[in-house]
Fold:
Amino acid sequence: MYQFQISLHPRSPAVTAGDELLRAGRRYPALRVPGEALGATFARSFEEVETALAALERMYVEPDGSFVWVSADATRPWQVDGVLYDRDARLLFVELKGRCPADAFDQLLTACGWPATAVMMQLTQEGVFVDEQSFRALAEAEAD
Structure:
């Protein structure tokens, strides 16, 4: 189970390795993200992502791009809240908060065009960017 509060961004080729992040006694590689890389957009439009998300079971999407997704399994409840943001007819980034299994998180990523589009995550509280692998390790550790 992953637990997180992040913004999901496409990973620009301009992004490089940065310093390490120390969180809960563990070290994770962070990313150095130049300002121009934050303007990169996903290959999919806001509407394409909205439609893909709406197709997920127990997903509710508002026309403004806000959404909530809940588990169908009462024995392992989870919920993800999010908001889609766009620029120039393309998805710019997604705010995500909650907890869900890794396979459900993969469905969220897939709706945004992953794995064809590489992604990076900004940890909201720290304001630090990490790659997908570091995010997954952090999200699992947070749920422990």
